[in-house]
Specification:
Luciferase, domain 3; ligase activity; globular; GMP Synthetase, Chain A, domain 3; Rossmann fold; nine-stranded mixed beta sheet; alpha/beta
């Protein structure tokens, strides 16, 4: 027997309409590149989104599912695009400005972007990409004197002021985000209106982001990075004020103090870098109550510094682009209140418990498939997940057992343990993924490219601890013939053709032979052990 409840599509237009009708006076403030502020309320944003919807349609985005790219930082215009594009039935495709033109050109070709909106802050580097793609419909906002193409504000001024949202199917695609390329090539993840709506409801639970209309939310995580962790939608649904830092604020403490930020989100490397600045301005940033931290693990010592010295709660989040992206969130339970501070910080350093709607399991691969492992804090296995907002396959790629199990779970590639209270902790990476400053670097892709160099016979890339970035790639190479001079600059130049600057290893160590496992593969554990045993000096 079916129930007798109303049944209509869950779409992002509902989030936009609710924000406009219920929270119209709440504000969106952007720190512009010239360090001045642009500020307006939700009502003004809503009116501009309607004009933008008409403008995008006039540009020729008229077929449901047309992809529209954005090449931008965290600005109010990008926020407008986050709503206008999916609400007309098109697909929002944020482009990662940190990738090279070669990588992005492949992504744009695969996505078949019909229009690309470009932030003036990146117009220079975008020109290199523009030469490699077929998309000629380019719109600029915050333009500088060198831009060419259509002007964003002119488009809005000429567009009709009203638009009627008309998404009939909640399973219609709304966004396309690409992974950072853990296996050498980024893979597309195609979100639906339903998946993002449900993700928004889940992260706004009290034990997750817990946002309210009294909050002032600042996403430092880029809007091109896994939909800014869903904060553009979660914040507006809750009615929170939003502060967008554009490209890079000169002084984060000033920005927090002037706008009254209560919740901020970003990778640990950002919070490690700005901690001295914030600690000197403790009284000025007294509104700041919580940091949402993701991308990589935050050291317990840094958690302690923020919570003990600044009174700012640290909440670890974990997820993947494939998960929209939030999967787990780390907050203390009532049973933890009697623990010592040191014990509490150890719990908080874990990646946390699955948020409502997410299922986790630990699995050990066997000849017959997978064996489920217990949640006892000791068993270590591959972390597998499923949820209503987790991908079932990649865009334009047939699903394989490498990425998805036969019973429909996503294989994360992470090796983890889960304790009896449900707190998950990543202990290793099955694919030797390197996490630097919250971004993913594929050791496999770097190794493949290094082996194309005529002087390189063998190559292995490992992640080594780094105080500033958390982890940095180190390349170990065996050469085809002896070379007396330092080959590092030559190898860096070789890699820079294909990869962005932050992917390039800081060091290249030449060895006679790379250590191997019993099956003849590079033994990365042994290499890392050699690196650590030499006190971070050159490998023998």
């Amino acid at each position: 027997m079916h129930g007798l409840m109303m049944n209509y599509p869950l779409t992002l237009a509902q989030i936009l309409e609710h924000a406009h009708r219920i929270h119209g006076s709440k504000r969106v403030t952007t720190l512009l590149p010239d360090q001045t502020f642009h500020s307006y309320n939700y009502t003004a944003l809503y009116e501009r989104v309607q004009r933008l919807a008409n403008a995008i349609t006039q540009l020729g985005v008229i077929q449901p599912g047309d992809r529209v790219g954005t090449y931008a930082s965290n600005t109010y215009q990008h926020l407008e695009l986050y709503y206008a594009i999916p609400c007309i039935g098109a697909v929002l495709h944020p482009l990662n400005v940190r990738l090279t033109a070669v990588q992005l050109a492949r992504i744009v070709r695969e996505a078949e972007d019909k229009v690309i909106f470009v932030d003036g802050a990146f117009v220079g580097q975008f020109e290199e990409l523009r030469e490699k793609i077929e998309c000629k419909q380019i719109v600029h906002f915050n333009p500088n004197s060198t831009h060419t193409g259509v002007a964003y504000e002119q488009l809005l001024s000429e567009a009709e002021p009203a638009y009627s949202w008309n998404i009939h199917d909640e399973n219609w695609a709304m966004g396309l985000c690409y992974t950072s390329g853990t296996q050498g090539e980024p893979r597309g993840v195609l979100y639906t209106h339903r998946s993002m709506f449900l993700h928004t409801l889940a992260v706004n639970q009290a034990d997750v982001f817990g946002l309210t209309e009294a909050d002032v939310v600042m996403p430092l995580v880029p809007m091109f990075h896994a939909m800014a962790w869903g904060l553009p939608y979660a914040s507006m649904f809750a009615g929170a004020d939003i502060v967008l830092p554009s490209v890079k604020p000169v002084c984060l403490a000033d920005l927090i103090a002037e706008t009254g930020v209560t919740v901020a989100a970003g990778v640990p490397t950002v919070w490690a870098k700005v901690y001295p600045e914030l600690s000197k301005r403790k009284q000025d940033i007294s509104t700041l109550r919580r940091l949402i931290v993701g991308g990589e693990a935050m050291p317990p010592t840094l958690i302690e510094a923020y919570e003990k010295n600044l009174g700012v709660e640290i909440c670890h989040a974990w997820g993947m682009t494939e998960m929209s992206p939030t999967g787990t969130f780390s907050k203390l339970r009532g049973t933890h209140q009697n623990l010592s501070d040191a014990e509490k910080w150890r719990v908080k350093a874990k990646q946390g418990r699955p948020i409502p709607g997410v299922e986790l399991r630990l699995a050990a691969e066997t000849s017959n498939g997978f064996t489920k492992l217990p949640w006892n804090g000791e068993a270590v296995g591959e972390l597998q997940v499923r949820s209503p907002w987790t991908a079932s396959r990649y865009y334009n790629i047939e699903p394989t057992t490498e990425h998805f199990t036969t019973d429909g779970w996503l294989r994360t590639g992470d090796i983890a343990t889960i304790d009896v209270d449900g707190y998950m902790q990543i202990v290793d990476r099955a694919k030797a993924l390197i996490r630097s400053g919250g971004e993913s670097i594929s050791s496999v892709a770097l190794e493949t490219s290094l082996l194309k160099h005529p002087s390189v016979l063998e190559a292995a890339v490992i992640g080594v601890p780094d105080e500033k970035w958390g982890e940095r790639p180190l390349a170990v190479v065996a050469l085809s013939q002896r070379i007396d001079e330092d080959i590092s600059d030559d190898l860096k130049q070789h890699l820079s053709v294909e990869f962005p600057k932050f992917w390039i290893p800081d060091r290249f160590v030449v060895v006679d032979e790379i250590p191997k496992t019993s099956v003849g593969k590079s033994d990365k554990r042994a290499i890392l052990g050699m690196f650590i045993s030499t006190g971070n000096s050159d490998l023998p």
